[in-house]
Specification:
The chain has 114 residues and is an all-beta fold. 0% of the residues lie in helices and 46% in strands. The protein has strands at residues 4-7, 11-12, 18-24, 34-39, 46-51, 57-59, 67-72, 77-82, 91-97, 108-112. The strands form two sheets. A six-stranded mixed beta sheet has the order 2-10-9-4-5-6, with no helix packed on it. Strands 1-3-8-7 form a four-stranded antiparallel beta sheet, with no helix packed on it. β5 and β6 form a beta hairpin. It is globular. The mean pLDDT is 96.
Length: 114
């Protein structure tokens, strides 16, 4: 069964940066489109970024120019570099395939507050 283990979340001030990591237990990771998602309190989970096996990336408009998704296929790991963080980025962040499977990891909490 596939597992996703996210890490790197923290409390950070507005304008700060964080780098999230996610290890996926997928034998086909190299061939998977991977995505980052987030769920803010009281809101539905939303897609944030995705990356194809060849490295093509796409982002939701609200994070374009601030977030960067990348992957290391040798480590079955996908990253999310988040810069110029805003309070509106506060959420639990998850990784999954894109489109997402029904299985989710525990996520990692990102809180942007002064």
């Amino acid at each position: 069964q596939v597992q996703f283990v996210e890490s790197g979340g923290d409390l950070v001030q507005p304008g700060g940066s964080l780098r999230l990591s996610c290890v996926a237990s997928r034998s086909r990771f190299t061939f998977d489109v991977m995505g980052w998602y987030r769920q803010a309190p009281g809101k539905q989970r939303e897609w944030v970024a995705r990356i194809t096996p060849s490295g093509t990336t796409d982002y939701v408009d609200s994070v374009k120019g601030r977030f960067t998704i990348s992957r290391d296929n040798a480590k079955n790991t996908v990253y999310l570099q988040m810069n110029s963080l805003k309070p509106g980025d506060t959420a639990v962040y998850y990784c999954n395939l894109w489109p997402a499977l029904s299985t989710w990891g525990q996520g990692t909490q990102v809180t942007v507050s002064s």
